[in-house]
Amino acid sequence: SALGLLGFASIAAAAPLHTRADAATTVRVMPFGASIVEITCWRAYLWKKLHDAGISNTDFVGSHATPSAGCTLAGAPVPFDADNEGHSGAKVTDYASQSTLPHWLSSANPNVILMHVGTNDAAANISTAKVFAAYDTLISQMRAQNPRVTLVASKLIPIDPALFGQFVVDRLNEYNFAMEGWVKRTSTAQSEIVLVDMVTGFDYKTMTREGEHPNEKGDVFMAERFFPAVKDAL
C-alpha cells in the first residue's frame, strides 16, 4: 500500500514498546500545526472514524485540549481525545528557529505525528526554501526524540485568494508541490513520512468558514483523508 508503513513487521520484535505501533500497544498520536489543527474538529471526526473501525489503541497527545467547546457532527456531540499541539498563528519557520518542538516531543513522546502547518508562512510570503529548511529541522527534532517516529504530513488545504491575495495562494501551491519531493527524499524505512493529499477535492468555497479554516464539511473531508494513513500506521 502506498500509505502503508514499511518495516514494522520486521522491527516490532526488537523495538522498545514506546516506539512500537502494533495492535497490542497504545500508540501516541500528536496532531501538530497551527489553527487548522487547534481550533477545528477534523481530529474529533478522525478519532470517531478510528473507533468506529474498531481501532481504539490510540492516545492523542499534546500540551492542551481544544476546542474547549467540543465538537459536534450533524448536531450531535462527538466525544474524542482532544489533546493536540496546534498553536494558532504559528509558522513552521518559527517552530524551527525558536526550537519549541523538542520540549513538546519530550513531554508527549509520540509514535505518530499528524502535521498540517505552513499556511501562516505563506501568508507572510516566506520562501519555499526557508519553509522546507524548517521542515528539515522539525523532522530531525522528531527523529532525535523517537528514531522510529512516523510523520503523516498533510498538504495544506486551499484558501480563498479574495481573503489572502493571489500571491499567498501561489506560495501555498509552491509549498504543496515541493512537499511531494520532500517526502520522497526525507522518508526512510525506519522513520517513514506519509503524504496526505488535502488539496484534490477540497473546495474552500463550501468547505471553509471564512476562506481559511474548515467548516464541518471541510473537517469531515480532512478526517477522511487522514484516516487511511493513520489506520495503516496503527
From TrEMBL:
Keywords: Hydrolase. One of its GO terms (molecular function) is phosphatidylcholine lysophospholipase activity. InterPro entries: Ester_Hydrolysis_Enzymes, SGNH_hydro, SGNH_hydro_sf. It comes from the Eukaryota. Residues 76-218 form the SGNH hydrolase-type esterase domain. This is SGNH hydrolase. It comes from Bimuria novae-zelandiae CBS 107.79. The lineage of its organism: Eukaryota, Fungi, Dikarya, Ascomycota, Pezizomycotina.
